[in-house]
Amino acid sequence: MEWFSKGSYLRGILLSATLFTLLFITHIVFAANGYSTLFKIIAIMITIHALAVGPTIIILGHISDVKTKIIALKIGLVIAIPLNIGLGWAYAGMVISITWMASFVILATVSHLVAIRRTERLLYA
């Protein structure tokens, strides 16, 4: 399973998706059982993860190659957009709010683009 080897963005995507899924299920369980403090902690972790999908892919995939990092960040940005639309919906009280949704999408997009530009500079340094 070469695609799952260290340094693979596919490994990072799979592990990142698994982590997000586990966090999401855990937050539902905590909310359903009235564990508000634990729910809030997991909600913060979900927020951080959704805003930083690309870096999460890099970390979990053990990616050290600069070109692979750039690919992982770009894929992470694409994945982050729908996650942050959902995050904005959740923060708005589970109603459609363009303000909340757009705010999270913009924040995730800007942070990923900054990370991409900074990583691209490593190619030319």
Short description:
This protein has 125 residues and is mainly alpha-helical. Helices cover 80% and strands 0% of the residues.
Features:
5 helices; globular; single chain; mainly alpha; 125 residues
Q: What's the total number of strands?
A: 0
**Biggest sheet layout:** none
Please indicate the count of domains: 1
- DSSP strand content: under 5%
Polypeptide structure, described:
The protein contains 5 helices and no strands. It has 125 residues and is mainly alpha-helical. Helix content is 80%, strand content 0%. The chain is globular. It has one domain.
Ordered list of secondary-structure elements with their pairings:
Layout: H1 9-32, H2 36-51, H3 53-60, H4 66-91, H5 98-123
